Structures are given as structure tokens and as C-alpha cells.
Amino acid sequence: MTNDSGSLAPSSPLSRSGALDTVALAAELLFVHGQMTEQTIAAAERLGDALGIPVRVLARWGELTVEIHRSPHSEILPAMPLAADMGKVLGIMGVIDQICQGTLAPQDARLALEAAAAHHPPASTPRFALFAALGAAALGVIFGANEAASLLLMAFSAGLGALFRRWLAKVSGNPFVQPLGAGLLAGVVAAAAERLQLPGAVLSLTALCPCMILVPGPHILNGAIDMARARVALGLARLTYAGLLILAASIGLLVGFEACGASLAPAAPAAMVPFAADVIAAGCAAAAFGTFFSMPWRLLPLPIAIGMLAPAARWAAISFAGADVATGAFAACLLAGLFVTPVADRLHLPHAALGFSAVVSMMPGFFLFHAASDLSELVSKGAQAPVELLAALVSNGATALFIVLAMALGLILPRMLFARFLPPARDQPRHPLS
Q1: 135-154 pLDDT, tens per residue?
Q2: Is the alpha carbon torsion for 301, 304, 306, 312 positive or negative?
Q3: How far is Cα 303 from Cα 323, in angstroms, rounded to an integer?
Q4: How far is the C-alpha of 406 from the C-alpha of 410, rounded, in Å?
Q5: Can you give the C-alpha Rg of the chain in angstroms?
Q6: Residues 24-83: pLDDT tens digits?
Q7: SS3 of 62, please?
Q8: 71 dihedral zone (left: phi>0; alpha: psi -120 to 50; beta)
Q9: I need a labelling partner for 186 at 20 to 30 A (CA). Which of 1, 69, 293, 316 fits?
């Protein structure tokens, strides 16, 4: 109820237990849908102050504890941070802003939070499948595929995998089933295309590009940020979860190959890609991953623009400064992080989801999946394995590791510096693009 000035009329305050319940719900919704731990805690504390209870939030893998300072009152909630949903985070942060600004009555806060989570569904299945196809084809261009038939085959495999993942999500709540099934399908499609000698059936890229869209970048970045913040247990849990998702996709891919009697060829140096094609493909990949993380249409230009700027910076670092691949990725992600951090703070977007969407074109999924294939072959051949296979395993694994570390450091460093020197105001409202 509002008065003539447009502000809320006075109303009876929430009880301490009711206020704690509201804060706990907000923290849980942010945590499970991919908001950074630091931002989740800050938002919960800001909401607690607005409701008249100073709270402290303790985040662990699978559990959130919200307690009132100097009080026996606390709530422990089961909370698994398995999702990355920018739409839901935006909606929930919008409700928190309304409460803190006094435009939403505290008594209505819980219902508003629940509505914000329910009224921001994930991207529709047609959009999800279309952008999965677009993302796989874009990654194919970045890794040197230049035949239309090959790109169409990658797009078909990824789009079909996206539909399969949505169906699997209805069948099973296990988070590892979807990457396992999508990886299996990608392996079968690539091996079958090669067996049938379809035009453009380059086995490695046809299989790997649809699998690269399964790399769980937000969990890697959130885990790395938690580690940098000395939340070691939570950071390790996030990184372990991300590693298990990659392992599930790798197992599915290798099983799909094995079922069709195929195997990945050794990794070959990527063909040179024209600068314009590389930048445009990076923007398409950023649009695809923004869609995967349920970014609203009106905000999708943000990761696209940053995603096109980052590979341009990498290209300049490698071409003009003679940097290696990992150093080029670090320079590009550092520049991307300088843009992503203030944008994510101002709009209350999940930093990891926005950041990964912007730099996904540099993720070393190609080397990760080749390393998994090399390891599988090494185990199967045992003592008869050639030395070259071991060298390939070490090379692919080390390359992937160094690129991931360089990218994570590049994105995290601006985040840490902004938090240190330009801490956001506790009552800063959200400014969404319209």
C-alpha cells in the first residue's frame, strides 16, 4: 500500500524469525543459481540490514547457514550450487533492491522472491537448441573448420545434443547424466558420419566442438574465485564438480567412439583463421553461452561485444608481442575482466556466467578432450603404448591446464582489484538495460 508520494505506507515490521526466513531464502536462491559467493553474502547482508536484522552467511558446498549476529536464531538450508541462471539472479536481485529502497513491503518479500525465481524460466528449448548449434559451429570456425558441410554437421550434432539434454533433464535430476548423454551422442554422430563418408566429416572437430559447449566455465571461475578468497573447501568442491562434469562428457564421447569402432585422431595444430572470421565466431559463441545461462535477450549484446573484443586482444598479443597461447589468453581475459567486473556489479549479474560467456572462445576444450582420449588409449595399450602417446597426453593436458589457469587469473584479477579499491556501495541499486 502506498501513500500520495509513491512510497510505502507504514506497516508492521516482520518478526525476527520472519526476516531471517526471508534473508535465508534470498541467499539460497542466489547461491544455487550461480551468483558469486561474495555477492551472495553481500546481498544477504544488505537485505538483512533493510529488514532490521544484522546477519552473517556461511556458505559451504550443499549447505548455507544464515544467522543473526549475537543471537541464537539461525537457519541451515540445503543448497547445491549446480546451476548458472542469469535471468533468475537478475530477478532475485531486483526484488532485494526493491526491499532495500522501500518500494516493496517486507511482508511481501518472500512471495516476491519465490515469484522472481518462478517467473524467469530457462531459455526455451528451441532457442537452447538453436544457439547450441550456433555455438558449436562458431567454435568449429575458431579451431579451423572452413567447410560449410563440416560446420553444418557440427551444428546438427550440437542441436540434437541440446534437445537430448533437455529430455534427460526431465528424466533424471542427476547433473552428470546430461553431459554424459550429450557426449555420447556427439561421439556416435561423428563416428557415424565418418563411417558413412559424409561430406565434411572431420572426426575430431565434428565430435569435439559439440562437446566443447558442455565445458562448465562458471563453476570453474566461481571455484577459482572462492579459492582466491581463501574459501578453500567450497572452491575445491566447485572445481571438483566442474571436473566431474568434464569427465562425464569425456566418458560419453569415448564410449560413443568405442561403440562405433572409432577413435580420436592425434591433435593437430589448428589452421590459421582470418582475423575477421575469428572475431565474428567468438561473438557467436558468446551469444550461445549467454543463452545457455539464461541471459535475457536485452542483455545478450554485452557478452557478444566483450566476446569479440577479447579474441582481438589475444590475436594482437600473439601476432605483435610474440606471446604464446596461454599468455595471449591471459591478456585477453584480463581485458575482458576489466569490462565484465563493473558491468556485472552494476547490473547484479553473476560474474562467472557473464565472464565465461565473454571468453568462451578461448577455452581449451579441444585439448581437454584430446587429453582424455590419449589417457584412455594409454590405459588400453598399457606397456605397448608408444612414447609419442605419453608425450601427446602430457602436451594436451599441460596446454589445457595452463590456458585455464591463465584465463581464470585474467578474469579474477580485475574482480579482486575492484573489490579492494572500488568496493560497491551496500545500497547500490540495479540499473538494468531497457
Answers
A1: 999 998 888 887 888 899 99
A2: negative
A3: 25
A4: 6
A5: 23
A6: 999 999 999 999 898 999 999 999 999 989 999 999 999 999 998 877 788 899 999 998
A7: strand
A8: beta
A9: 293
Q: How far apart, in whole angstroms, are the C-alpha atoms of residue 300 and residue 390?
A: 42
CB 236 within 8 A of CB 227: yes
So what's the pLDDT on residue 407? 87
Inter-residue long-range contacts of 66-71, CB under 8 Å, 24+ positions, other chains counted: 66/20, 66/23, 66/24, 66/27, 68/16, 68/20, 71/16
Q: Could you please report the per-residue DSSP string of 282-341?
A: HHHHHHHHHHHTT--GGGTHHHHHHHHHHHHHHHHHHHHH---HHHHHHHHHHHHHHHHH
Kindly list the strands in the beta sheet with 62-68, ordered across the sheet, starting from the edge strand earlier in the chain. 55-60, 62-68, 74-79
The DSSP result for 292-303, as a single string, is HTT--GGGTHHH
Map grid coordinates 578461448 to a residue. 362
Alpha-carbon span 131 to 133, nearest angstrom: 5
Contact 196, 260 (CB under 8 A): no
Strand partners of residue 57: 66
Half-sphere exposure at residue 18, Cβ-oriented, CA atoms within 13 angstroms: 12
The span from the CA of 368 to the CA of 83, in Å, is: 22
Helix axes 37-50, 217-228, angle to 10 degrees: 70
Kindly report the length of the chain.
434
Q: Which grid cell sits at 236?
A: 575445491
Got the DSSP string for 80-95?
------HHHHHHHHHH
The predicted-structure confidence for 248-303, as pLDDT tens digits, reads as follows 998 998 898 888 877 666 655 556 678 888 899 999 999 999 999 988 888 899 99
H or E segment and range at residue 131: helix 125-142
